[in-house]
Design a protein that fits this description.
Blueprint (H helix, E strand, L loop, with lengths): L7 E5 L4 H9 L11 E8 L2 E9 L15 E2 L4 H14 L9 H4 L13 H5 L20 H10 L16 H14 L3 H9 L7 E3 L28 H8 L11 H5 L7 E3 L1 H12 L3 E2 L2 E2 L3 H8 L3 E4 L6 E4 L4 E2 L12 E4 L5 E5 L4 E7 L10 H10 L8
Antiparallel strand pairs: 1-3, 2-3, 2-14, 4-6, 5-6, 7-8, 9-10, 10-11, 11-12, 12-13, 13-14
Length: 386
């Protein structure tokens, strides 16, 4: 059974009907999980050719999802963080091939003196998880967690292996930006992406925007039996501490700056920012990233089986290149996905960027069936003329 048609609304340009069909199908009872509330936006050359919302912001189905609904998008936040750091590369504050310790001397501890910024952002620094016990509440102090990681001994030789950094990526990015600019990443992102128009994407959630945040519905309890033989860094990344979906509803989580995990965004806001990659480095028509910086952002820096995700993934400087087919059939797509199902990506060759957000969380770490079906549908569209 599909949700009643009146719960899905928006705009679909001729030739993009397959996306609308896939979006509606995601509300069907046979979908696992079926959407409760969701939004999808597809931009082509900066113009919205698909802009759809459906369902409800809350489990009681009292508040309809609207175009300006925000939701915690977990690791999709990393794509926005990567863009913010790229803008600092463009301005000369940071360079991808520079040693992190040249900007952040404390980071040189325990044999990390040669780790480059590019390695740090592509999950090769050996810092996927904390060695010492860390509470969930301790994550809300980003500066302290960055200092802890700077002093920590890496789990493996930096650059010799890759292990996805679910939470620590954000603390490392924040520490890097503080060291390079003297300011925190959240204030830089706010200045950068809200300077023209409305990004509708925030680190944490400002109190002024709390009234439009959707309630997350947690996924089924995860089966952790596969972690029994996981490498110690992968195990630490997922369990020290264990992050719960319920935490996202707390004032502490929303008030914190977690550049890996607590971005609150609309689909329109995410698509607008990923369009920077699809439009040659321009934001709302204005130059943001030059050709060299954009190439550095999108250059693959690690392509090997990931110790945590157990897939051969192509990591760039904070973005994922689509060699695993997560975002449709074309490898020349760059983006990131988040726990629960959200994603945002860009295809420079097609001049498109698209994003999906939802509040009923799925349990897949990668390859949520709802996002996969939307990505397949995008490339079935006659309007793309690929």
């Amino acid at each position: 059974m599909i949700e009643p048609p009146e719960t899905v609304s928006g705009h679909v340009a001729p030739g993009f009907e397959p996306v609308a069909a896939a979006f509606r199908q995601n509300f069907a009872a046979e979908r696992e999980p079926p959407d409760l509330g969701a939004a999808f936006v597809l931009l082509r050359d900066g113009e919205a050719v698909v802009d759809l919302v459906g369902g409800y912001r809350d489990p009681a189905r009292q508040d309809p999802w609207t175009r300006d609904t925000l939701v915690n998008v977990y690791s999709t936040t990393k794509a926005v963080t990567a863009l913010a750091i790229a803008a600092l590369v463009e301005r000369g504050h940071i360079a991808y091939d520079t040693a992190v310790a040249d900007l952040w001397p404390a980071f040189a501890a325990a044999g990390k003196d040669s780790v480059t910024v590019g390695q740090l952002l592509s999950h090769q620094a050996g810092l996927a998880g904390f060695r010492e016990p860390v509470s969930l509440e301790a994550l809300y102090d980003s500066e302290a967690r960055a200092a802890q990681l700077a002093a920590q001994t890496p789990w493996h030789a930096p650059g010799a292996d890759t292990c996805y950094h679910p939470m620590t990526f954000g603390f490392l990015a924040d520490g890097l930006v503080r060291a390079a600019t003297g300011r925190d990443l959240r204030s830089w992102m706010s200045e950068l992406f809200h300077r023209s128009g409305e990004a509708d994407c925030y680190l944490g959630c400002p109190r002024t925007e709390a009234g439009r945040v959707a309630t997350l519905v947690p996924p089924p309890a995860a089966d952790l039996s596969a972690l029994a033989n996981a490498p110690p860094d992968a195990l630490a990344a997922l369990t020290n501490p264990a992050v719960t979906a319920e935490a996202a509803a707390t004032k502490a989580w929303r008030g914190a700056s977690l550049p890996a995990a607590n971005g609150h965004a609309s689909a329109a806001g995410l698509a607008r920012l990923l369009a920077i990659v699809a439009s040659g480095g321009r934001l709302d028509g204005e130059p943001l990233l030059g050709e060299e910086t954009l190439a550095g952002l999108c250059r693959v820096r690690s392509e090997r089986p990931d110790r945590l995700l157990q897939l051969p993934l192509a990591w760039c400087a904070g973005l994922l290149r689509n060699t695993a087919g997560l975002y449709g059939p074309r490898p020349e797509v760059y983006g990131h996905s988040g726990w629960g199902g959200s994603f945002a990506c860009a295809d420079p060759g097609a001049g498109i960027a698209f994003a999906y957000v939802c509040n009923r969380m799925g349990s897949d770490l990668v390859g949520d069936p709802r996002s996969s079906s939307l990505c397949r549908a995008v490339y079935e569209c006659a309007g793309l003329d690929l």
